Amino acid sequence: MNELEAVAHFMQRHGLLLVTGESCTAGLIAARLADVPGAGQLLDCAFVVYSPDAKKQCLHVGEQTLREHNLTSEPVAREMARGALANSLRANVAIANTGLADDSDDEIPAGTQCFAWAFRDAAGGAPKLYSETRRFRGDRSEIREASALYALQGIQRYFEKMHVL
């Protein structure tokens, strides 16, 4: 079983349905999951929000958050995950990512990726939210591929952490 199949199997066992809010990966997280047979039972929808305006309009990222924290930040990723989950009536887990795959920013190193995972509370409370920042090396495509796989693998890591707490 490869890494993507392992993620899909875990999601199936735990009844997880995904929505994504993707910036730097531009839909690659959802596309990689869709590569696995039976993915239609695992993926509800995906938002590709590359521009700041799209992040605000589609996923309700706050103007103040963008101004205070920069596009490549965990606070932005967390708001993207919450917004994606809020926009999906069926999904119970969201992944969001934002970052840089090249050296287009003088202050943030290429390969910096900010992720967030949000899990809908079955009781209707606020979603459980986790975030982290990682830096991947390689060319633009390698960084995006590594980011997408890492994001999907985070589902199991944070689901298990949530159930241990």
Walk me through what this model shows.
- The chain has 165 residues and is of the alpha/beta class.
- Helix content is 43%, strand content 21%.
- Strands 2-1-3-4-5 form a 5-stranded mixed beta sheet, with helices on both faces.
- β1, α2 (28-34) and β2 (43-48) form a beta-alpha-beta unit.
- The chain is globular, with a radius of gyration of 15 Å.
- The chain starts with a helix and ends with a helix.
- It holds the Pfam family CinA.
- Keywords: Hydrolase.
What is the highest CATH level, the class?
Answer: Alpha Beta
The name of the CATH topology is Maf protein
Unreliable residue stretches: none
Q: Into how many domains do the coordinates divide? A: 1
Total count of helical runs of at least 4 residues: 6
CA-based gyration radius: 15 Å
Gap between N and C termini: 29 Å
Q: Which features would summarize this protein structure in a list?
A:
165 residues; alpha/beta; Maf protein; five-stranded mixed sheet; 6 helices; 5 strands
Briefly say what this structure is.
By secondary structure, the chain is α/β, with parallel strands linked by helices. The protein has a single domain, classed as Maf protein (Alpha-Beta Complex), CATH 3.90.950.20.
